[in-house]
Write a structure and sequence with these properties.
This protein is of the alpha/beta class. The chain is built from twelve helices and twelve strands. The strands form three sheets. It has an eight-stranded parallel beta sheet. Strands 1-12 form a two-stranded antiparallel ribbon. Strands 2-3 form a two-stranded antiparallel sheet. Bound molecules: flavin mononucleotide and benzoyl-formic acid. The site of benzoyl-formic acid has 5 residues, from loops.
Amino acid sequence: MNGVLAALRERARARLDPVHWDFYEGGAGAETALAANEAAFARLALLPRVLTGAGPADPAVTLLGERLSMPVLVSPTAFHRLAHPDGERATARAVAAAGTVLITSMAATTAVDEVTAAAREVRPDAAVWFQLYLQPEPAVTEALVRRAEKAGCTALVVTADSPVFGRRTRDDRNGFHDLPPGLAAENMRDLPGAPPGRTRDIAMSPALSWADLRRLRELTELPVVLKGVLHPADARRAADEGVAALLVSNHGGRQLDAAPAGVEALPAVADAVAGRIPVLLDGGVRSGADAVAALALGAAAVGVGRPVLWGLAADGEAGVAAVLAELRAEVEHILTLCGAADCHGLGRDQVVVRGATGVRPC
Ligand SMILES: Cc1cc2nc3c(=O)[nH]c(=O)nc-3n(C[C@H](O)[C@H](O)[C@H](O)COP(=O)(O)O)c2cc1C
Ligand SMILES: O=C(O)C(=O)c1ccccc1
């Protein structure tokens, strides 16, 4: 792990209520999938090319028509006000200033219109995408989509890996199942079927299907990113269905504990999609080298979840800014050391698996 991130992680641990720390850090079951994410990156090494004359590298990328200052965006995570009183507003300001995309969670403790407003105070063209769990009641999903559209979000990120909520061992042990008084999932307020001023619970449903995704796409002009895809056949199907991008993810190890690391699933997904749509990756990205390895294996960009929560808990907006500045600097440095001109400049042949003698490609 990058040293700046590791130091912020320790500051976050020291500041947070241990129950909230466990909520952020923990995974499902025996935390096998959680551990697999960082372990999979640790097994990868980068083979640099020499004398390319390509550098210094430009870490910027374009994704769904938006220019990002680096190939790192912020994956959706619930409940930022548990980390810091400024919560998602602080995150949004830091992400906007860093020039990348924030995917704000449906389970945010700040309403999406306040999140976009905070981002735009810093940078008028800042991009915020809205993460959505399709709700079993179509009227509720539609109201959430309208809320995200009205707030100015420029994409919907539909999380498809949660037909049921994962069984989080630490939360069960700690009895953490509700937000403390004064905090709420603000996007869930004033929706159909709830009394005015009250929030609805976020529902997860195993009955959702591709037909529901199609109905969502008929409801909105916004591009839809499908999050939580691991199987190459699902990736192909998503591209056939007209999804704008994929986010390969095991949900930070919080859903199916038997799932592979995202980066283990990435090459087969990239092959299945064959460049038709951008493929994003999250889970265990803790350094510029991790991000660059994922790019070489076919990702257009990567997401970070927990590192942003560490920065937020350690030092609010400045902490999130420090995480993102460090990752951008590292990506630029590593690309340059690898002889690449930009984020498209590495091939899959430049990622090898450690532990073998000789050079074994991924
Ligand atoms: C505390 C926490 C809350 C999360 N909440 C959501 C969420 O509301 N929606 C979602 O799609 N993913 C959620 N995720 C998963 C992240 O979007 C992402 O897939 C994962 O955290 C990436 O792995 P990383 O934390 O190792 O970077 C959450 C993850 C964490 C750690
Ligand atoms: O998705 C998650 O991992 C998560 O922690 C969460 C928490 C509350 C509501 C929705 C998701």
